[in-house]
Amino acid sequence: MIEVLLFAQLQEEAGKDKILLDIKEITVKEIKEKLQSQFHLSQVKESMVAVNEEYALDGDIIQTGDTVAIIPPVSGG
Amino acid sequence: MIEVLLFAQLQEEAGKDKILLDIKEITVKEIKEKLQSQFHLSQVKESMVAVNEEYALDGDIIQTGDTVAIIPPVSGG
Amino acid sequence: MRDKLFEVVEDPISVDSLIKKVEDRNAGAITTFIGTVREITGKKKTIYLEYQAYKPMAEKMLAQIGKEINERWPDTKVAITHRIGSLDISAIAVVIAVSSPHRKPAYQANEYAIERIKQIVPIWKKEQWEDGEAWIGDQKENVPYPTGKPEIKDEDND
Amino acid sequence: MRDKLFEVVEDPISVDSLIKKVEDRNAGAITTFIGTVREITGKKKTIYLEYQAYKPMAEKMLAQIGKEINERWPDTKVAITHRIGSLDISAIAVVIAVSSPHRKPAYQANEYAIERIKQIVPIWKKEQWEDGEAWIGDQKENVPYPTGKPEIKDEDND
């Protein structure tokens, strides 16, 4: 199981703050595509992905048990 | 009478915080020379002069009733 | 208990408590940056802001900014607290405190911190106007992450 | 009674009270600079500092710095308090608070203020070391007043 955390606009679009995916292994690029096509999250494209609280690159591999977060452009401060 | 205020090292050198000069009119340049020669204040040369709380130039004229301050290089902050 | 130097909180921030965290016998300068909720931006009138964070990661990223600062400007001490939740006009959203033996690094490191917060710390704000609301990103001003991910080092920053 | 924005005082300075003086509904950023007494400078160990001011003129000059800032960076608010007398290690000698709608001017104006204080405000410090004392001027670093008097405008400042 991979837990995907959603924030800000993505959270509102999805109507929930997390999605559970029953997947053993997937790349960052693939999970972004999956979230766009299956969950219609418009902002995924311009978002970063964090795996276990670290920014990840498209080629990085996500495994079952990992916590993924979709990070749209930040606006703190 | 012209009141001359002394601060910091000048005050310690003179042993007092003001000097009264019985003068009607004098330029800034002249008063600096006078303080050096008569009162042996070594730091006057590198000091600025303020007349009535405004910085003054060598040619400016000081008149009886004015308050003069000798301002050695400042070191606040 | 040791004070946390890098925190995301839900209650009002005390500027004084951040100053205390960076005090040092060899500090000659402490700078603070206080980010407050501004009423007017362009022609829009803000009623309040709503901040959300990915809290554990946000605190990690704030700590990383502190580490970057200590590497670039030795002998500095840094503390950063960001508040989340609903914030009224003039409320304090973020406080950055930096101490240093000399003033120049205290200013530079402080400004570096706020720039980095706006790049890598997962915190978002939603503006509530009289006639609507929107989550704010800096999409209008910047390509979100030109190098594919937020720069962990940004040598050109000033 | 209106708060004094530019002050020379003999008692401890409250950073919070200066922040309050510059708060504004349209401020998005407040910067503070806190000048503290540092123990070690080079190889010298300071025991305490003694500050002296030509008080009425010093307050006038602080107000003038505020005016210069408002001209250069519109929409800023500035407050400065300098303490005099005997100050122990870590004590606060000066606090500068600047508010602005945006952060960049808040940093720039604040740094401008401390540079100008060191140029034109008639305040002097005497360092007390373990083995002596001396009034400090910036003679070692600068020609005191290259143009004959302290520059009232300094267009090259950054």
Automatic annotation (TrEMBL), chains A, B:
Signal peptide: none annotated. Pathway: Cofactor biosynthesis; molybdopterin biosynthesis. GO terms for molecular function: nucleotide binding. Pfam families: ThiS. SUPFAM superfamilies: MoaD/ThiS (SSF54285). Keywords: Molybdenum cofactor biosynthesis, Nucleotide-binding. This is Molybdopterin synthase sulfur carrier subunit. It comes from Gracilibacillus orientalis.
UniProtKB/TrEMBL annotation, chains C, D:
It holds the Pfam family MoaE. SUPFAM superfamilies: Molybdopterin synthase subunit MoaE. The keyword Coiled coil does not apply. It catalyses: 2 [molybdopterin-synthase sulfur-carrier protein]-C-terminal-Gly-aminoethanethioate + cyclic pyranopterin phosphate + H2O = molybdopterin + 2 [molybdopterin-synthase sulfur-carrier protein]-C-terminal Gly-Gly + 2 H(+). It comes from the Bacteria. Heterotetramer of 2 MoaD subunits and 2 MoaE subunits. Also stable as homodimer. The enzyme changes between these two forms during catalysis. Belongs to the MoaE family. This is Molybdopterin synthase catalytic subunit. It comes from Gracilibacillus orientalis.
